[in-house]
Amino acid sequence: MDTFTVVNPATEQPVADVPLATVEQADAAIASAHEAFHAWRAVSPGDRAALLRRFAAVVDAHVDELAELEVRNAGHTWGNARWEAGNVRDCLNYYAGAPERLFGRQIPVAGGTDVTFHEPLGVVGVIVPWNFPMPIAGWGFAPALAAGNTVVLKPAELTPLTAVRLGELALEAGLPEHVLTVLPGKGSVVGERFVTHPLVRKVCFTGSTDVGKRIMAGCADQVKRVTLELGGKSANIVFADSDLAAAAASAPYAVFDNAGQDCCARSRILVERSAYDEFLTHLAPAVEALRVLDPSDEASEMGPLISSGQRDRVRGYLDEVEVAIAGQAPDGAGWWVPPSVVAVDDPAARIWREEVFGPVVAVMPFDDEAHAVELANDTEYGLSGSIYTSDLGRGLRVARAVEAGNLSVNSHSSVRYWTPFGGYKQSGLGRELGPDAPMAFTEEKNVFLAH
Ligand code: NAP
Ligand code: MG
User: Ligand 1: does its nearest atom lie under 6 Å from the Cβ of 96?
Assistant: First the structure.
């Protein structure tokens, strides 16, 4: 059997060997999940809710253990890793409120009664990337299970450890076997099988835009339901009337968090021309002060990149440009890139257009509000963005004008489990999280009863 050696990206030391599922094993797991579906959908709403709450409680009791796994497997900081494990618990608790609330409508009609139902789909395949292994898994499985589906989940090859543990914790919490099955394996094997297997009724994919397009094309063959959360090149728009010191102090965290390996990273900073020099004066010390350390150190604010390949990819972008501001990074073992700020004047530059997925931010001045919106929207992506201004009218106006799914004014927040999350344009299709997420894992059925 093929195995994958998980490596600590901060030390390059092996952490664990994980067996990779074959197509035959994926088929067997999908068949078992399909069988389990009939019993799972029949569990009464209150009992399904109670099981999900129990799962949340068991995750809560293992937050530190899960966080420790993510620190070693993915190079996440302790603070992030604890938040991520807590996010799985919170998502489960939130969607545990859904089973009793999945009500349909009664619609007035002549000659009878018309009612609608939200029926579960069946087996849902969740494909997870390596950048946020725990939250992205939970955003898929929690609402899918709540709506009465069974789930097969493929973690990224590089980061399977927390997903495998969550699968064990689900059983410990009393979820029936085969309701949530974690299948470590290759995208080209297990991931592709989710797309082609007729008993997988929906694919929920997070990852690169290129693979997302292939998955959407593959799903078309069976008109399979699909949700896509893809890349981003989000803009942080800073107006001259904002608190420039505060905007500059927060900007590094909006892009260098998780070493920039974040689909919501504000990797383009647009600064009103009259404030451009002053903003950079504030930005430099904030970038230089970032504590880039082995994340096993609680003081670390930024860890390494996930792999040598990702490190080389990011370095390739930096080799083409002049770095205006560079932060620190450790020497020696580990896949490190220092946080880097690049001043750009040509919107055609590769570093301005492409998702780097590393600790690199490009900065450009703009002339006025219309110009800022034009630059922000001059991209195929549309996931998130920020607006810094003291004029709330302008904040709202620009938030409405930017073609992206998640905007924040005078803040960089984008993800809360109880608000919707997803992308415009090539950043994705559909929404996750928020009150409507379970609906994305159901079919709406209409029933007419003749009087
Ligand atoms: P990726 O190839 O899209 O991988 C994401 C997930 O899809 C992984 O579980 C992967 O499995 C799986 N996969 C790969 N090929 C597949 C296929 N043909 N069919 C079904 N599943 C498949 O992303 P990546 O290579 O890890 O990262 C490349 C770039 O994608 C990054 O540099 C970044 O720009 C972007 N990215 C975006 C996000 C996001 O949150 N939006 C997350 C990660 C990456 P394996 O692990 O086996 O490859
Ligand atoms: Mg890939």
Answer: no
- Quick one: which atom of ligand 1 is closest to the CA of 427? 41
Share of the chain above pLDDT 90, in %: 99
Mean pLDDT of all residues in 268-293: 98
Q: Whose CA is nearest to atom 20 of ligand 1?
A: 191
Residue in 23, 189, 211 to alter for ligand 1 test, most ligand atoms within 8 A of Cβ: 211
Tokens of 101: 């609330």
Model pLDDT, residue 403: 98
Beta carbons of 138 and 165 less than 8 angstroms apart: no
Q: What pLDDT is attached to residue 416? A: 97
C-alpha to C-alpha distance for 361 and 386, rounded to whole angstroms: 14
**What's the CA angle centered on 70, arms 65 and 74, to 5 degrees?**
165
Tokens 């970038």 correspond to 287
Cβ within 8 Å of residue 371, ≥6 positions away: none
Q: Is 423 in the pocket of ligand 1 (CB under 6 A)?
A: no
- Would you identify the CATH topology of the domain 3-230+426-450? Aldehyde Dehydrogenase; Chain A, domain 1 (3.40.605)
- Is 257:219 a contact under the CB 8 Å cutoff? no
pLDDT at 264 over 90: yes
Positions marked active-site = 229, 263
* CB of 154 closer than 6 angstroms to any ligand 1 atom: yes
In Å, what is the CA distance from 26 to each residue of 23, 72, 192, 228, 232? 5, 27, 10, 21, 31
Ligand 1 contact, 422 CB (< 6 A):
no
Domain boundaries, the chain: 3-230+426-450, 235-416
Is the beta carbon of 224 within 6 A of some atom in ligand 1?
Answer: no
User: Residue 157's pLDDT band (boundaries 50, 70, 90)?
Assistant: very high
Angstrom CA distances, 232 to 255, 427, 440, stand at: 12, 6, 22
- What percentage of the chain carries pLDDT values higher than 70? 100
pLDDT at 413: 82
Mean pLDDT (whole number) for 119-135: 98
> Regarding the domain with residue range 235-416, which homologous superfamily does it belong to in the CATH classification?
Aldehyde Dehydrogenase; Chain A, domain 2 (3.40.309.10)
CA angle 262, 273, 284 (to 5 degrees): 50
- Report which ligand 1 atom has the smallest distance to the Cα of 158: 46
